Please model this.
Amino acid sequence: MIIVESLCKKFDDFPAVKNVSFQVEKGQVLGLLGPNGAGKSTTMRMLTGFISPTSGDVHICGDSILTEKEKAQAHIGYVPENAPLYDEMDVTAFLEFIYDLRGLDLNQRLTRVQEILKLCALQEVEFQKIETLSKGYKRRVSLAQALIHDPRVLILDEPTDGLDPNQKHEIRKVIKNLAKEKTIVISTHILEEVDAVCDRAIIMSHGVICFDGTPATLKAQSPTGKLDDVFRKITAAEERC
Amino acid sequence: MLTPQFKALYKKEFQSFFKTPLGYVFLVIFLFGLGYMTFEPGRGSFFQMREASLRSFFEYVPWMCIFLVPAVSMKLWADERKKGTVELLFTMPITVKEASLAKFFAAWTFIALALFLTFPMIITVLLLGRPDLKIIFLGYASSLLLAGGMLSIGSFFSSMTKNQVVSFILTVATCFILLMAGSPPVLDLLSAFAPKYVLNIFESLSLLDHFESMSKGVIRLSDLAYFTIMIGFWNFSSVVLLNENKAE
Model:
């Protein structure tokens, strides 16, 4: 589903991502972990085609993000960091706009938008302006726009960051439901997220992959059994290098 | 052929002017300001000219546009980049060129609407006399081209910075320099140190000269080419800049 090959990104002389390679299979939920500034968001942005890699390539469902960008992007639903939205629009108008922007069948628009509103539990606020919504609702709207074209791959950049425990629970419930039929990549620095929704974890630090395995393997590396401890151990070791 | 993505963004951008107070404030100030300046009692006033024409109206169009067009253009990209919605937009199947043109044409349509709403001026002169409708039509066409030129400059500066105020100031300053480029005080100042050919180039860049000759009813290929190149150049620069800095 997702094949990342020797991905590198340099900003001027600063190497943000260094030679990152991995594959994600269908039905897998991959947690991309790492401290702030580890290169997670940059990797996500390259996966979605928002920025071009300095070298390397990404294949989404067989389409290269470099040479067949639009085809590759059509397979992806993306929730960017902080879930930016057009605040002056109401929820339905926003989803209709994204539907049109995706170039989908106009006859199915009304039905599809209603389906998505139901799936993301947004019916209560469908005619409300986005700027008046709570953070939790805004995240759900962002998730709804990512799902409108029924993508095979979902890329979520810190989807629960800044939410209260109830809102986090709601978002994770939606992600878990989607995991059955989609390939999902979640970037996060919240370790409980890995336990809650992921079945594989990659830890990045200073632009390189320091760990790739299941959350259980990750936990097993810690004498205390806590993810926090092993996360610190792995990322600190990379810093010393 | 217009793509569905172009149409979707164009529609959303045009409607966005009416979802915030910006569009209404623009229309009120533009219409009231132009109406007041056209009819205010003083030199160059509509009634003092004693002729059935919109000369006094079109004279003030550049000076209204120099402040109001940058107010429309400043948010085109600066706002998207500041809020981060640019990331959402460019992970959709739309190219930077399509998006830039969709935004530009939506804003241009909005300004065209503002110009259209000055139609009571035409009715006024039609009631008072027998104006030359060809000159009036060309006056509107040149106003639209002038606004398009300023808008493309604004689009460029809006894609340069995330700060809308900086974008506004840079656009006003650039438009002012281009408006005044052919005026005697500027040319006198330049003639003190610049060679003649530089003066000629500078003079030929004057927005006001090209606008005035067309609004007086003379269609010159050079004026049309000037506005086309102007709009094309600044929009192209805007696309190049966005490709470079959209992720910053």
